[in-house]
Amino acid sequence: MESLLLTDGGRREFLRGLIRMDGYEIGVRVELPPTFPLCLAKVFIDSISPRVERRPHILTDGRLCIEAESDLLLDVHDPWGILRETLVRAHRLLHQILTGDRAAEFARELISYWKGSPRGLPVPCFVAPDDRPRLTKALYFEELLLAVADDPREPARFSPDFSRLPPCTLRNAIYIPIDPLAGDPAFHPDKLATLSELRKYVRALPSRDGRVLDKLLGRSGKHSPLVILGVRRPEGERALVGIQFHDTRGGHPLAHEGNGGSVEKIELQRRDAPFLASRGGADPHLRGRKVLLAGCGAVGGYLAMALARAGVGSLTLVDGDVFELANTYRHVCGIARNGMPKVFGLRQEIERLVPYITVSPYQQRLEAFLHERPQTLDSHDLVIAALGNPTIELELNRRIWSSHRNAPALFCWLEPLGLGGHALLTHGRASQSPARGCLECLYDHPVRGAALENLAAFAKPGEAYTRDSFGCGGRYLPFGDLDAQNTAQLTARLALRVLRGEVEGAPLQSWKGDARAFLQAGYEVTSRYESQTGAFAETLAYIRPDCAVCQT
User: pTM value?
Assistant: First the structure.
């Protein structure tokens, strides 16, 4: 490569030269952006000889798409090395463009090429792509397309902005899955915006889908028809693009008897649940799972939010308390819902931040809730207790074990002053019947007639660890926000494994924190805390063969 370092009007520096490869001679220009060497240089293609008409991965201004910020690790002390890395990537991509499957590359990059009106914004799209043609709905305000959705209620659920709009007009739109790569080795995104080419792709549908589509085309209405194309990419998933037909005469432009019409590209912004969940690291398969969470305090609040963000589709919240200012620094809602019942405030916060979830709040104590709804324990996939009340949790444990139909249950609790936290699974999956081991196994009398003690405890039993702010009714367990988050995260990870069917047995998991604040307060730790060598432990050694609850 011939190279020359110049200054273009004092604004930028660039190298210009030729690359010869695979029988082509390529004129390139390499520019150093102002942020160089914190980024790769920019490579522009000035010419390719012999001429190549359609070239993927090259933008309209000639820039080659070689950047992939997520995998960049650059040595800023070696700018010439970064320039070499730029050219290596450019050479590799040019070889792919000139000798590879260009149609596949265009299908892979379809969304990048599908731009609507320069002044228009992408249209929110709540259509989940699949492999069958079907009717969907378009929402219009007068003649302005606002959204397209399989369920016209989804836009308002997704964003309050939609619910504040005047009533929208609903019109039929058609979703059509196509696979242009199956029959067109010269595919280019522009062909989808050409009526004659688009008809070829649509007519290549399997005969069964073609018959379905013929019926749907007759139901699209008299207004400018809207079509959502689900274009199969080389990896198998589908990209969504929209087409609005105008100036139609006779039937639908894609129908056999259609006479024609003009085509407008519609750029879509995908907001469907499968896309958002997969893109954000959530699990789309958890949308059908139901979790009952008893206790919406510091741990329960973070736990509910974690499950929602993981993709769980239905949460039942049970708690009789109201948010107070004292909750501010260790609750996921902070000061935002002060004075509200916790279940309603937490529901608002979850629905404000996470779409596609149903939250059912019950402002009452768990005992009353179970008394009124005795069948609820077998109507959920998982029950979680974050009450901080061992007496009520032991009663819940007994109820869970009263019927084999009841759901698995998770109990979680905190130690004082950052000493640690615990999560116990019970009534979980086993080969024949629920795995033995439960919360009752953890509690024992060290001496006949003495008080019950939790065998998993890190803080030595027999002490009162709660503190007093204002006398009776003002007592609280001292722990911080990060302690609540750690325990919620421990429990949430175990809960997700349970919901995916990945856990057998009844594991007790614990995280071990720093004891300095606890010891400085004059307290003592247990031998279990001292014997735990790592920050995290899991055990089944607590299971008692004589347990009156899980061994009967």
Answer: 0.86
